[in-house]
């Protein structure tokens, strides 16, 4: 089962309303559990190679503050001409190959189509994420070494 198949399975489960799904084949055993507050998944007993898949939780509403509301709505009008590079999978976002390496991109850097902009670790696999557009990095929307969701915006790019 490929990472893309697992992502599609997670998306299906999140839309179906099921709280728990277990799938077992001769090569693989997957257990997906969803909790309202995003609690971690219980480990699966290994029978074969084990794949732990993060649960897709419903968004948790945060308490809005008067100061935060205007700051969030103002940049949205400015970003209409920018292209968003989004996460193609669930995983952990890394801006460099390792802690000693320089960041792949910084704000203001020019990127071309196919240039690696970050790495997303999913199930102990490190996936290089390449830019699909040419332009200049305007904003980095995710902190280094933080979890990201499927289709979550990672970078804003001003097209050239």
UniProtKB/TrEMBL annotation:
It comes from the Bacteria. InterPro entries: AcCoA_biotinCC, Biotin_Carboxyl_Carrier/Decarb, Biotin_lipoyl, Single_hybrid_motif. Keywords: Biotin, Fatty acid biosynthesis, Fatty acid metabolism, Lipid biosynthesis, Lipid metabolism. PROSITE patterns: BIOTINYL_LIPOYL. GO terms for cellular component: acetyl-CoA carboxylase complex. This protein is a component of the acetyl coenzyme A carboxylase complex; first, biotin carboxylase catalyzes the carboxylation of the carrier protein and then the transcarboxylase transfers the carboxyl group to form malonyl-CoA. This is Biotin carboxyl carrier protein of acetyl-CoA carboxylase. It comes from Spirosoma arboris. The gene is accB.
């Amino acid at each position: 089962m490929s990472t893309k198949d697992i992502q599609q399975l997670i998306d299906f489960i999140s839309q179906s309303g099921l709280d728990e799904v277990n799938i077992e084949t001769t090569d693989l055993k997957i257990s997906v559990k969803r909790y309202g507050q995003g609690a971690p998944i219980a480990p699966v007993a290994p029978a074969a190679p084990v794949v732990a898949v993060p649960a897709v939780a419903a968004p948790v509403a945060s308490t809005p503050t008067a100061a935060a509301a205007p700051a969030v709505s103002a940049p949205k009008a400015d970003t209409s001409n920018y292209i968003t590079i989004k996460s193609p999978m669930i995983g952990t976002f890394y801006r460099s190959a390792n802690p000693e390496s320089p960041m792949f991109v910084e704000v203001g850097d020019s990127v071309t189509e196919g240039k690696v902009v970050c790495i997303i670790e999913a199930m102990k696999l490190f996936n290089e994420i390449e830019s699909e557009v040419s332009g200049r990095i305007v904003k980095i929307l995710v902190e280094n070494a933080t979890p990201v969701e499927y289709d979550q915006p990672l970078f804003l790019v001003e097209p050239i």
